[in-house]
Amino acid sequence: MNNQCVTGFGRMYTVTVARAVFPTMNPNTTPASTWDLGGGAPDPYVCLYLDGNMSPLACNGPPGVQDTFTANWNWSRNITVNSATSVSFTAWDEDTATHDYMGGFQYSTGSSFIASARRGGFMGPAYTGDPIRWNFTITVR
User: Fold this and answer.
1) Diameter of the chain by CA atoms?
2) What is the CA radius of gyration of the chain?
3) What are the residues whose beta carbons fall under 8 Å from the beta carbon of 5, sequence distance 6 or more?
4) Apex CA 112: angle with CA 23 and CA 122, to 5°?
5) Beta strands in the chain, from DSSP E residues, in sequence order
6) How far apart are CA 21 and CA 119, in angstroms?
7) Distance from C-alpha of 30 to C-alpha of 118, rounded to nearest angstrom
8) Domain-wise residue ranges, the chain
């Protein structure tokens, strides 16, 4: 496991994106269409962002898990979070030309992330109402 740490004031947590279940149709298109040409399932991977940065701190792909509506990643990262840190996750469908945004959510402040850690993490759907059912664990290091 290749963990990346963010230093600063705060407490270190391990976040594990264990699993995500995706809708069979891409809700980000009008009308909704299949994720891949010819009706194929998506090739999902996940990215982690801190403090609203447009560039991810870390991703577990591409490549993503091939042709699945249920990704079992069990992908972990150690991060340092304080009450002002924002923590975001996004899922992407790996494609040849441009990767498709599948969905995501943001803990607007570290305080909600920390509260989730104290409760043992959470299981989706995400706060933003996106159609992905996420399964995360958040633990104090």
Assistant:
1) 49
2) 15
3) 12, 78, 79, 80
4) 40
5) 11-21, 44-50, 58-59, 70-81, 87-93, 100-107, 133-140
6) 22
7) 39
8) 11-140
* pTM beyond cutoff 0.85: no
- 59 pLDDT higher than 60: yes
Query: Residue 53 above 90 pLDDT?
Result: no
> How far apart are the C-alpha atoms of 50 and 79, rounded to whole Å?
9
DSSP 67: S
Report which of 43, 120, 132 is spatially closest to residue 89, judged by C-alpha positions.
Answer: 132
Of residues 4 and 77, the one with the higher pLDDT is 77
- Which has the closest alpha carbon to 50: 103, 100, 93, 7? 7
* Residue whose pair of structure tokens reads 């109402």 in the numeric block: 129
Find tokens 């995400």 and name the residue.
Answer: 126
Single-letter residue type at 111: S
Any idea what DSSP says for residue 26? B
Fold of 11-140: Immunoglobulin-like (2.60.40)
